[in-house]
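R.M. (postdoc): so does anyone remember the format we settled on? I'll just put the structure tokens first.
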């Protein structure tokens, strides 16, 4: 089993019984499972604030077996795994978890209670220099809090995560995360698959801030990013950077067939109006029913250099023109006269279009509502006690 497959399977075990977790450990081995969990913990941890280095031994037990990982924490440095206890480090702490408890802490429901499911060995050795006791106690407490911040499914809101990881979706050129919070909340506890077109950073920088934001927000999610440039150095547990051209529909369909279907697709790519349309047509079939397709930066519909239309009314081949077409598709059953050809996928499966300043959310489902029966003529309406539109206009004019 690959590391990527193990990470994906673990996202499903947050609500699994102990027997299924035990079967996974038997199949994979405790060391590999713990390594995947530690990798997830380190990604979620807050930045260390302790000024004096602290080594924490994280011990994870399963049955009669225990695996131990020693982590070094110090302000201004990334948390790192070290080989073992270092006698030169004065401050050491041990935290012990049962494997099943740690799995549920990471991948279980957001609001589950987890008090009392770990053992803490605080300062196992008496410090030689008691004049440093206050600093030692403070640093130990802070480092323990940092580690526990990573042992939870809870996360800040998207606004705070956007700032933390450097995404431009909040408090920059855009104010998108408030709308993302509104539409994404119902997916947050699910093992979702997300594809974002456009990783950022252009050719000279890896980018990836939004991908990390999605990974932290969706604690059970698998996150994929697509970029024209190779950003595979960003790859980590639950996050994969793919290389491809969003203007190539064949490549998009092949990508989606391999890594989809997706619960959420976000287009934050080139913002070229043609690319937006090509990507939507290629990828919308690979969005699961109940999922969302998001289009960012609709302003380029009005910018000719991106293939947009200057002036107050956009052309049909722009991003906004696409959304207008989808609104017509939702109302396919109301067309008069009724079309003879079969419904298109968007006429059958688009059930909502929510548009805000420069961002839109397209809902996928079953657009199965029918129209008023064709035989409901004026005579039938009168039989129900209604008046015809013409009679209504005449009555209004007489008042």
């Amino acid at each position: 089993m690959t590391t990527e497959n193990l990470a994906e399977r673990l996202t499903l075990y947050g609500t699994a019984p102990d027997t299924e977790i035990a079967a996974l450990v038997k199949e994979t081995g405790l060391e590999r499972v713990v390594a995947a969990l530690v990798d997830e913990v380190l990604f979620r941890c807050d930045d260390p604030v302790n000024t004096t280095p602290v080594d924490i031994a994280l011990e994870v037990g399963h049955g009669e077996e225990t695996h131990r990982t020693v982590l070094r924490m110090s302000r201004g440095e990334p948390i790192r795994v070290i080989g073992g206890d270092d006698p030169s480090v004065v401050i050491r702490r041990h935290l012990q978890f049962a494997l099943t408890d740690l799995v549920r802490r990471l991948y279980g429901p957001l609001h589950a209670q987890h008090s009392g499911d770990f053992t803490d060995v605080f300062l196992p050795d008496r410090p030689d220099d008691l004049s440093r006791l206050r600093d030692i106690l403070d640093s130990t407490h802070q480092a323990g809090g940092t580690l526990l911040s990573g042992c939870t499914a809870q996360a800040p809101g998207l606004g705070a995560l956007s700032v933390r990881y450097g995404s431009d979706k909040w408090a920059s050129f855009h104010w998108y995360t408030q709308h993302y919070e509104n539409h994404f909340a119902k997916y947050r506890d699910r093992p979702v698959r997300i594809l974002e077109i456009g990783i950022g950073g252009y050719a000279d920088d890896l980018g990836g801030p939004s991908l990390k934001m999605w990974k932290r927000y969706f604690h059970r999610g698998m996150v994929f990013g697509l970029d024209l440039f190779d950003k595979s150095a960003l790859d980590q547990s639950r996050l994969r950077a793919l290389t491809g051209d969003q203007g190539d529909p064949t490549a998009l369909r092949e990508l989606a067939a391999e890594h989809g279907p997706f619960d959420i697709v976000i287009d934050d790519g080139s913002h070229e109006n043609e690319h937006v349309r090509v990507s939507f047509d290629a990828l919308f079939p690979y969005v699961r029913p109940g999922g969302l397709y998001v289009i960012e930066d609709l302003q380029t519909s009005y910018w000719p250099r991106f293939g947009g239309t200057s002036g107050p009314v956009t052309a049909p081949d722009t991003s906004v023109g696409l959304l207008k077409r989808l609104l017509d598709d939702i109302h396919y059953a109301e067309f008069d006269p009724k079309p003879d050809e079969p419904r298109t996928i968007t006429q059958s499966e688009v059930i909502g279009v929510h548009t805000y300043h420069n961002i839109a959310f397209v809902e996928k489902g079953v657009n199965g509502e029918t129209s008023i029966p064709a035989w409901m003529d004026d005579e039938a309406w009168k039989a129900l006690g209604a008046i015809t539109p013409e009679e209504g206009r005449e009555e209004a004019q007489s008042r």
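R.M.: ...and that's the designed sequence above, right after the tokens. Also worth knowing: The longest strand covers residues 287-296. The mean pLDDT is 92.
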